[in-house]
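pipeline/complex-builder :: batch 7 item 3
reading input block
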Amino acid sequence: MSAKAPVPPALARRLIALAAPRAERAFVMGDMEEEFAARLRSAGAAPARRWYWRQTIASLVPLARMRFAAGERAGRREWTGDPMWRDVIDDLRYAVRVGRRNPMLSAAVTATMVLGIAVTTAVFTVVNGVLLRPLPFPHSERVVRIGVILRNGVPSTSMAWPDLQDYKRDARAFDALAGVSEDSFVLSGDGDPQRVDVARVDQDFARIFALRPAIGRLFAPGEFVYGAHNVVVLTHAFWASRFNSDRGVVGRTIVLDDVPRVVIGVLPATEFAYPSAGVEAFMPLALHPLSFRRNRGNVWLGVVGRMRPGVSLERARADLLAMAAGISSAFPDAMKGISVHAEPLQVVITGPVQGMLLLLGAAVAAVLLIACGNIANLLLGHSQARSREFAVRAALGGSRGRIRRQLLTESMLLSLAGGGLGMALAPAVTRMLVALYPGGLPRVGEVHVDGRVLVAALAATALAGLLSGIPMARRAAALDLSRDLRDGGRASGGRRRRRFSDALVMTQIAISVTLLFAAGLLIETFWRLTHEDPGFAPNGVLTFQLTASMARFPTDDGARRFYASLTESIGAIPGVHGVGTTTQLPFGSGVVQDVYERDGKNDRSPNLPMAAIDFASPSYFTALGIRIVRGRGIEPADDARAPRVLVIDESLAKREYPGEDPIGRVIVWNNSRWTIVGVARGVRIFSLWDDPSPEIYFSTNQLQSRSQYVVINSDLSRAQLLPAVRRELRRLNPTAALTDIKSMNERLAISLAAQRYRAVLIAALGAVALALSLVGIYGVVSYAVSRQTREIGIRMALGENAARIRWRVVLNALRLAAAGTAIGVALSLGAGKWLAAFLVGVNAHDTRMLAGVGATLMAVAVAAAYVPARRASLVDPAIALRGD
Amino acid sequence: MPKGDFLGEFEILVLAAIERLGDDDAYGVTIRAEIESRTARAASIGAVYATLGRLERKGFVRFRISDPEPVRGGRARKYAAITAPGRRAMRLSTRALERMLDGLELGLRPGRQR
């Protein structure tokens, strides 16, 4: 949201505010904003933002000068009297002069720094916005999500309705507990029918999240009673997008699932919403007095609680556990063996992306480190050429500390220049990172540059400046006056400098090896997953979700007939080979799992097995290409009058009937007995890396769900097929909305998006690391060659041939590469344990991959050394020896 | 004549822009736009303000803060007007320039460009 909003770039505004003299600030910024607004109208957002940035950059120096001059006039220059500050100013002036005198060096250092800081700042911006900042409502750190732990030990994100009422009455660790349930409705009326994501909330929900209406009101206590008139509160975003921010909507009636409901309020614009970022409207949670949702054993309600001030998470958990134990002994039938767990809401929301963001952060930090290494080497080489200058300064009485400070000032100035530009670029990089993030980053609206990001970026810049300047400063302080004055540093520097450069390059290579190894493993994971068999045939299959509302189809039979006629009429479209419906589409939304029982076991143990529950139409199996491996599939004759049947999948057959024929056996589910008539191939329904999960298919003619996926297998493109489908649907049910329209191949691609993102980003960072290391090796080798010119000349004069000299140089590089690779291998093996969480079917200690990466680095080292090696072999001994 | 009475080039541009715009319409945005459109030379708001500040100290311009605009979030503007000494200094500087350039053939006049 903040990325595209038509406001001036926040960072640029801040820079202007910083630079402008206090008295002028309001006027300068007002003028900038005025012209920005004019350009926004005439040219659009992007050009206007660009203009604002250009203006900012051009204005900073004049404004800062003006401010400085104002301070001077006001007599605020007393600090210049302090000799230390005078030194700093002198150092700065000198550093600027040095930088100007060596434009190539300054440009190289600055450019490296710009890249490093831009990427680091961008990643930190994301990490900060998503992981570090507290959730944006008061006392968010005290809010936890509570769910039960099922008998089989699986934690659930929900609990039963009566449990929550007991907790509300008895919990002492919490000052509020609220129930929330996600639901979706179809909004009809003016315009196309549209799916609306709704949260049903109880009377305590608004208090926990400090919700207040922007327009109208929130729910009154009487509206949480079943049978009260239907009311709805809209989120700001939904109000803006669907109702064009029309204040008149409040008080009006809208039709959701064919039921009229009154809009009573609109929430303020916010970047955060619970239970999901996409929630569009809120309704009161009110249950029918006889609803099966009031059952003890029915776990369906999401619960959040706010701990009392000063109560620790541990105490709150202990409180909940004690109450859960009480409930399960009071209601052993439903609740025996069921426990409870609570997690901080922040962990719930950001937990899934934490590992990914930290991986990214570590990779970026590694690249920044390599970049610092390169800068350090560049500066070190440069300082070599200035040995005579330092010697002269020392001879004239300049202390070593003073020279050291001067050099650090130079490297700091360069890194600050690069870092400043890098920070200016960071918002653009951030936007790119966020836009590329698969499946949407949680809290993405809250990702922007704030004070903490600026401080971190400045700290990274300063650290980078120090890291890259210290080697040079240390080296300069180790002067040998007589020698340096005599030969101007040409033959000096010696072993110490070389050892240090070598160490730097080895570190770079080691880090590159680790990054490339990680990238290799991630790419292999991605490749393997794309070649994994999902258990169905995704090609040419288009799917969408559909709901037959209670209001339009009051009886289950009506809904059944609707789906049957829709299937039939879609099947009649030329080019369509098969149409089926299912409640449990692989890689679709929502998964229903439930416990079942093998007949005869009569097992009331807490460990009843679970399976995915699917109501499928007869043609579903062929439409999605799921093979029936034994017996038969669901058939049209399996209707309400016929015997109750079901089809299980291979993994359930293997688990329950190993080595036996399951056909004809009976499974008890939902208090009824069902006979197994067939076994279908195992299908991966959650992800390509989990094994097919046990699944039970019931006949859609014996059990009916109102919300179903329609699966269409055809030769038609989406553009050809969808209009025809919509035509048929309008005829049968004009207020139904198609939602979640995707081909099966798209669903598979989306399920792998995180793997792809990881693989691509880490590979890109690995490539940058490799390129930087290449430059690093080249720099060190080529410096060594230039320093050894005389030695090479002597060797040649003594008859050593060019090939041998080339080999000697290359060997030197190989030695470095080998040492660096060895360290990198050790690092990689260490990192492997940590990486394993991101890998599927790939060994985190894959030795072949390691060997490949090592060989790559060696090859790169040879390539980097080749140019200087050639130069060495072309040394003319006569000139080399005369040179001194 | 003290040196401070002569104007720099950008100062002349800014004063000329104020003169063209009139006292009631010369503020940061319009001055900048006037210079950019007439000289085809980029001018930043920062530079305009810095120059205006300098001119005020020399007593060549004075400022008038407008009432906030009568719209939501409306702001006050800082309008500039040339003072009598300012006008004198401009005359002085441009005349000096004219005298220096008089009779020189710089290929600058319209129709005589290479």
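note: The first strand of chain A starts at residue 143 and ends at 149.
queue -> next item
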